[in-house]
Amino acid sequence: MKNNTLALFGGQKTIRSEFERYNSIGAEEVEAAKNVIDSGVLSKFLGCWAPDFYGGPKVQEFERQCEAYFKVKHAITVNSWTSGLIAAVGAIGIEPGDEVIVSPWTMCASATAILQWNAIPVFADIDSETFCISIDSIRKNITPFTKAIMVVDIFGQSSDIDAIMELATEHGLKVICDTAQAPGARYKGKFSGTIADIGGFSLNYHKHIHTGEGGILVTNDDALAEKMQLLRNHAEGVVGNKGVDDLTNMIGYNFRLGEIECAIGIEQLKKLQTLIDGRQKAAKRLTEGLLGLTGLQTPKTSENCTHVYYVYGMVLDIDQLGVDRKRIIQALEAEGITGLAAGYVNVHLLPMYQKKIAFGSTGFPWNSDICKRDVNYKKGICPVAEELNDKSFLGFEMCLHNLSELEVDLIIQAFKKVWENLDELK
Q1: What sign has the CA pseudo-torsion 184, 190, 192, 197?
Q2: What are the structural domain ranges in the chain?
Q3: How many Cα atoms sit within 13 Å of 227 on the Cβ side?
């Protein structure tokens, strides 16, 4: 038997042991959490207008440190990034029936946060190289009913936010930047997520830094910050005593992040750049090692951007390879690579959008007077995203592992071994 016989056909696996699971939690976070527990103050929020409306000491400290780190005027912690998106959409003054343009190539919460306010998601296609929302597709989807654009900085790099902000200004639209997967990435020297009207980051357990669950909203707009703080903490019960006159969308929630999570977040934030440096170093080594493999496009980073590699996104030229994606993934996984993804997601094709059923059973909000036109969610409206999902995108979830140089080299060897045996896979 040849040494390069694929493991899929009985050869020896290239990778014979599991890689270390990604874990950014250390002794510092344990000590920080213990100190909060010892204090007995696990949360200090009050859902009324009082000194503790803004939370306890660790919430305050974490928010101030995020403001300094990301160079923004306001940072607002929330108990999940989904909560953050809901608060952001509400804060921009969305009205029932308003349209918000969003990428289909994202976690479903990006679009669901729009529906939570009885607004209508409109899906714009993505760029074939960066996988971020396409400005040309945004432009084509703007209607008289468009109120905002939700940009998604997917996989670890920024969208073309300057061009999007210029387009938004031209049409009088607000911009929300979902930078869940790209904390610490930069666009023209500024942090991704900080240029839009509202941006923010996820602190979910498999993100670059995490508190288990959680999120950080950022803005330089005082009025938007106040609205998001209100929405986070029972707005309707606070506005009277706080003296808030604009009651638009002041239906509040309990989106509050606790003292333990914020204590952990303070320690995590200190590590962010070091963690990014390690991820970028591994990605650079991987790209250099995969260079020249036929029919394989490695990640593209836009000019003036940095990439923090939540996902290492590749594209297969199936026609050139003569082997379909499923077969290639089977061969790579047999060699011991874990964390491969066949495609990503097309949110507009989820059952909720195909059947147009969200609230209740009769099709609200689409089948109601607030929806001003028949919004199309049929397959074909986002051809780039659909083709990538159905046929050619191959993701490697770098968020799953702490990759050493040796482990990166083993991944490269596994890819090369499979590519050397493509004829055997046909």
Answers
A1: positive
A2: 27-268
A3: 25
pLDDT band at 1 (very low <50, low <70, confident <90, very high): very low
Burial 92-112 (b: 16+ CB within 10 A, else e): bbbeebbbbbbbbbbbebbbb
Query: Which residues, including other chains, have CB under 8 Å from residue 325's CB and lie 6 or more apart?
Result: 316, 318, 342, 391, 392, 394
C-beta separation of 24 from 210 below 8 A: yes
Q: Give me the residue label for tokens 């379909």.
A: 324
Residues 6+ apart with CB under 8 A from 183: 192, 193, 201, 202, 207, 208, 209, 216, 272, 308
Contact 151, 103 (CB under 8 A): yes
Return the bridge partners of 149, or none: 101, 175
Residue reference for tokens 């040796």: 406
**For the segment 187-225, what is each residue's pLDDT rounded down to a tens digit?**
999 999 999 999 999 999 999 999 999 999 999 999 999
Antiparallel, parallel or unpaired: β 99-102 and 174-178: unpaired
Q: What is the DSSP string of 252-293?
A: --B-PPPHHHHHHHHHHHHHHHHHHHHHHHHHHHHHHHHTT-
pLDDT in tens, 244-296: 999 999 999 999 999 999 999 999 999 999 999 999 999 999 999 999 999 99
In whole angstroms, give the CA distance from residue 305 to residue 23.
26
329 by Cβ neighbours in 10 Å (0-12 / 13-18 / 19+) ranks as middle
Q: List 146's β-bridge partners, or say none.
A: 99
CA dist 347 and 104 (Å) reads: 5
* CB proximity list for 297: less than 8 A, separation 6 or greater: 129, 314, 315, 316, 317
**Considering only CA atoms, which of 294, 274, 299 is closest in space to residue 395?**
299
Tell me which residue has tokens 């679009």: 111
The fold for domain 27-268 equals Aspartate Aminotransferase; domain 2 (3.40.640)
**Pairing state of beta strands 393-396 and 340-342?**
antiparallel
Separation between Cα atoms, residue 253 and residue 234, nearest integer Å: 5
186-187 and 174-178 beta bridge pairing: unpaired
Cis peptide bond upstream of 383, omega within 30: no
Q: Residue 351: how many CA atoms within 13 Å on its side-chain side?
A: 0
- Tokens representing 418 are 């499979």
Q: By the 8 A CB rule, do 306 and 67 touch?
A: no
